[in-house]
Amino acid sequence: MAFIGSSPKFQIWMGPTTFKRIAANKSFFQNIVTILRLPSHRPSLPHRQSFATPIMLYTVHRQCCRKFTGARDNSSRKRGDRQNYGYWNVRDCHTVQDLVQKTLENFHFSSPTTVAAAWNYLPLLLRRQTQQHQQNHVDQNDEFMHRESQISSLIQQTIKLLKKCRPKELTTIILSLAKISRELRWTHGSQNNSSINHQAFHNILFDDNGSPKQDLFHPFAEAACHRLAQFDPRCLANLAYAYALLGYDPTLQRGDTLFQNIAPAALKQLHDFDPQGISNTLWSYATLKVSHPYLFRSMGDFVAASPSLNTFKPQELSNILWAYATIHQSHPLLFEKVGDTIVMLDDLNSFKPQELSNTVWSYATLNAVHGGLFKKIGDGIVSFGDLKSFKPQALSNTVWAYAKANETHPNLFKKLAEDIVDSDGLKSFTPQALANILWAYATLNESSPQLFKKVGDAICSQGSLNRFKPQELSNTVWSFATAKLQHPVLFEKIGSTIVERGDLKAFKPQEISNTVWAFATANQCHSGLFEEVADSVVASNNLSSFNPQELSNIVWAFATANELRPDLFKKVGDVIVEMDDLNSFKPQNLSNIVWAYAKVNESYPHLFKKVGDAIMKRVDTDSFNPQELANIVWAFATLDAKHPALFKKIGDDINARGDLDGFTPQNLSNIVWAYATVNERHPSLFEKIGNFVVALDGLQSFASQTFSNILWAYATANVHHPDLFRKVGDELVESNVLTSFKAQELSNTVWSFATANELRSDIFTNVEGVIGESHDLASFTAQSLSNIAWSYAVANVDAPLMFNDAFVSAVLEKQEELTLEALSQLFQWHLWRVLERSNVGLPEILQEHCHQAFISSDVTPSIFQKDVVALLTSIGLNPEEEFLTQSGYRLDALVEIDGKRVGIEVDGPSHFIHRKANGSTLLKRRQVTTIDKITLVSIPYWEWYKLGKDRRKKQQYLQSILSVSH
């Protein structure tokens, strides 16, 4: 080799500068010597020429590179470029330190391609290399400092070379750095990350917050942006992919960003993109949340217009879908095309779990409907032997997607539940994964008690729930409540966790409302939680951020849990009243709100008027389901909130419905109870409901309160429906249902039969037996006792098992609670017991008290009564108005005819139920006749009104019914 370097002729002929460059490149001379020593590989040289020209020798060098390394020396950048770059094989290096050191040693004589190849090889070596153990901390520290210096130097040298790099080389380098950064993130905190190489790279590439050093990666973006026009589709995709891995979109010196420049460059070459390029580009934009609708629309159109998607790999298809879903940009044609392509596949064996999960997640996120796709993927997953290859996130996203898209697949959910239940533990599941799984099963009503218990126990086993976000806590309890599954320990733990955080500002309105709704629905008491929520709501100055559903859920939850917080109800009520309108409130919202206020007896007239008026403005109430209609009228009646127009509208709409099959017995009972309570008459509504009940095959689904309220409503509203009373009466007598009646319900039942003059002795006998055998009279209110006593007096049915000393004692114990009406009823009972039945009645002291109440009622004669009295006088009778009988009854008028006293009763509508005397009228007639020995004559309103204003006819009518001669 010496004679070559010492040949003056060769040196002069090549020129001093060129010779120095060649002489410095050892590999150049080594390659020449090697190839000349091997005749079989010797290149053709000029005849009789001991040495070739410089160009010939350099050709030998390049041939050697190809022969022995299998790679090219691409050092000739352009035709005529005589600069000589050295070459060495990067794959001869087996460790990161060897590759970094070798690259640095040969950097000034290596081509950009070689440098790019070295960077391309680094991520692979980094993943392969195991942790290096040093003998002592000092040596390790020294080695670390040296390694960090080498890597930093290599990066800085590479940055200086960027101007000479072609697009492929530039993107290779930045992509390699991005992959190294990703590797460091994946292994952060693990054993591998404690190696010298990982520590050195981490210190150089990341700042103290664990984010990539943008000033380090910025030069690559600037260099790329200056020559984007030279980038082919693959380079553009790789460039975007690299910065997506790094996690940021660089802002360039001129003010725009790198991704703002990549998009137009990509669109110009759109038809040259291959599937991977499209997938990586879209994935990158979505990962960085960089919105570019035109790019997504154009690429989507391009893919959708493709004759076939068979050239797209499963990962590419799933990444494309994921990108559109993540960026929230819909493309129906693309999703339909991809969905159809997947459905047409023979099987899904080529899809990895993550790809299947991402696919259904994307469709669900964008509400892209494709039932065939969900069935295909669900069937595919079910056909897998096991689900061990599914990561927790993939399992969670899959069931979440089916629930979000409302796509049922029982076999899939069963398989997933069994896999989770059979797993050793759920420690690898994130809080979000656990919450999403529960939410999905609850949303689709997929019953899996074992799954819920497993997840609930796993959450409870955690020492702290600090890793759970508010939404995850909220979704967890919401799911258990929706699935109607109990887990008291879980609810207690979550409730206490929320209280311990002490501030609900991190909770969104939906999370607050769903949480208290869940606790109330699951009947889980946690006063501390409700107090925390109430305090937060009352103190809030921005309840306008709560939507109607959330406001509704909050007051409903507090009412259901019987958590009395008047300040909270006032706050919510004020917000609703101040709204311009309630058009955004769904029927259920309106119904639940008024129900909640009624449940806790929180009167708010302005709120109820606002809600009533809002319902009136709607064309009809068809959008209201039976439960909502029943709750609305029940709430208005409970709080005595008058709104006649609302009751008429709801009554008319119910009456106009074809049938009442959607109404539960409780709905029907609450409706008629409400109308009777507020005295809102609607005969056709009562007739329709009564006929519906009568037509039922059986009344086994009716609860005791339902029976009681229906009977009470018809009796109170003076609605005549004997078939209804007969149907209900038969059920009460033939079944054993009366034994389940509470005291108030028994009282209301007999009172209703008595008031409606539906006097069935078997009903009264059965009730006597139930009260005598099963009920302590102390459990009856004073009003209930008086109602029972009065009812038996009306029915004239003796009840020795009930009316005894114990009954009288019970009345005496509650005499301070007796109203004037109750005292009057007891006096009528006393009259019946003593004067009609010759039994023991009330004690004297109570008897006198009741008698005074009975005779002390104020009397105001009606116009009807005055008219009758005047005409009685006109026919020669001398009527005595408001005559007080010896028994204590008052008669509208008393006349004497042929020496006999005749009582005249002017009976208006309140005395009848469909022209049949009601219980009060019946009892008065009987007792006055029996006790006072006075003949009674009734003048019913319908006969009198029929006479109109004809005085003569009225006189004749009175003479006729009294048998008075003209």
- Beta-strand share of residues: under 5%
- Which strand order spans the largest sheet, edge to edge or round the barrel? 1-2-3-6
Total beta strand runs: 6
Mean pLDDT rating: 89
Low-confidence stretches: 1-18, 34-56, 64-86, 130-139
Distance between the termini: 163 Å
Helix run count: 47
Helix content percent band? 55-70%
The main sheet comes to:
4 strands, mixed
Indicate the overall shape.
Answer: elongated
- Our Rg estimate from Cα atoms comes to 47 Å
Structural class: mainly alpha
Overall description:
- With 966 residues, the chain is mainly α.
- Helices cover 62% and strands 3% of the residues.
- It has 47 helices and six strands.
- Helix 16 runs parallel beside helix 18 and helix 32 packs parallel to helix 34.
- The longest helix is centred in the first third of the chain and has 25 residues.
- The radius of gyration is 47 Å and the shape is elongated.
- The N terminus is likely disordered.
Provide a short characterization of the protein structure.
By secondary structure, the protein is mainly α. The longest helix has 25 residues, at about 135-160.
Task: Give the arrangement of secondary structure elements.
Layout: H1 2-6, H2 8-14, H3 16-24, H4 26-37, H5 54-69, H6 96-105, H7 112-128, H8 137-161, H9 167-186, H10 196-205, H11 214-225, H12 233-246, H13 258-268, H14 275-287, H15 293-304, H16 314-326, H17 332-343, H18 353-365, H19 371-383, H20 392-404, H21 410-422, H22 431-443, H23 449-460, H24 470-482, H25 488-501, H26 509-521, H27 527-539, H28 548-560, H29 566-577, H30 587-599, H31 605-617, H32 626-638, H33 644-656, H34 665-677, H35 683-695, H36 704-716, H37 722-734, H38 743-755, H39 761-774, H40 782-795, H41 805-813, H42 820-836, H43 844-855, H44 863-874, E1 880-884, E2 890-897, E3 900-907, E4 912-913, E5 916-917, H45 919-931, E6 935-940, H46 941-946, H47 951-962
Parallel strand pairs: 3-6
Antiparallel strand pairs: 1-2, 2-3, 4-5
Helix pairs in contact: 4-5, 6-7, 6-8, 7-9, 8-10, 9-11, 9-12, 12-13, 12-14, 14-16, 15-17, 16-18, 17-19, 18-20, 20-22, 22-24, 24-26, 26-28, 27-29, 28-30, 30-32, 32-34, 34-36, 35-37, 36-38, 38-40, 40-42, 40-45, 42-43, 42-45, 44-47
